[in-house]
Amino acid sequence: MVKFLHERHLQDVDREEAIGFAFVPASEDWRYYEQPERMTVSCDYGPVLGGAGRMIMVSGLRSALEAASTEGPADLQVVDRALAHQAYHSPFREPSRQRLESLLKRSALDHPAIPVVTSIPGRYTVSSGAADALVVSETQPLDVPGLVEAARGHAPGKAYVISSFLRQLEIDFHVPTEYVDDVWLKRMFG
Predict the structure, then answer these.
(1) How many CB atoms lie within 10 A of CB 164?
(2) Series of mean pLDDT values for 10-residue runs along the chain (190 residues)
(3) pTM of the model
(4) Helix (H, G, I), strand (E, B) or coil at 26
């Protein structure tokens, strides 16, 4: 797992890449941010805060994101270089995708004991090829509403969410939800 995370977070290029976040009020069209020549919606978190709006993460060249920061239906908060130097879940991640594919070919992740629910469009439930799903997520956008809907089909008793950011969004996972941190993850799984 440590090697996987190391490979995923290697900086691949000298391009000025960035990510940004926008909270788009429910009354506005969030699809403005899907303009591919400017940026990529790299993660659609879906309706948040009780349906008040939609949270999206965009990726692209830093210059494009900064130019678009005050355009469109919502303010786009571009993340500082020190905190995010890559355009995650975007075509820019192709070198990382190739490294991870090589690493995961030798892993036991490919055949999970139980189905894995993902946020990858068209692959929401994975019974085999879980390693491939991780690789695909490097270069393709993520869709949290799709993940939530797929999870509903499996009717889990509880959802464990390892992210303080997701806690703030108040996403409705339709099951009792416990928000945990990295300390909990280490205690449970070593």
Answers:
(1) 10
(2) 67 81 95 82 95 95 89 91 87 88 74 83 84 87 94 85 86 89 77
(3) 0.85
(4) coil
Q: Where are the alpha helices (DSSP H) in 36-129?
A: 62-67, 94-104
- In the chain, where do the E strands start and end? 17-25, 40-48, 53-61, 76-78, 116-117, 125-126, 142-143, 159-162, 177-180
CA angle 13, 90, 52 (to 5 degrees): 130
The DSSP element (H or E) to which 182 belongs, if any, is: helix 182-189
Contacts of 10 (CB under 8 A, 6+ apart): 96, 99
State both tokens at 85: 């130097």
What letter represents residue 30's amino acid? W
- Residue whose pair of structure tokens reads 């449970």 in the numeric block: 188
CA dihedral 107, 139, 172, 159 (to 10 degrees): 10
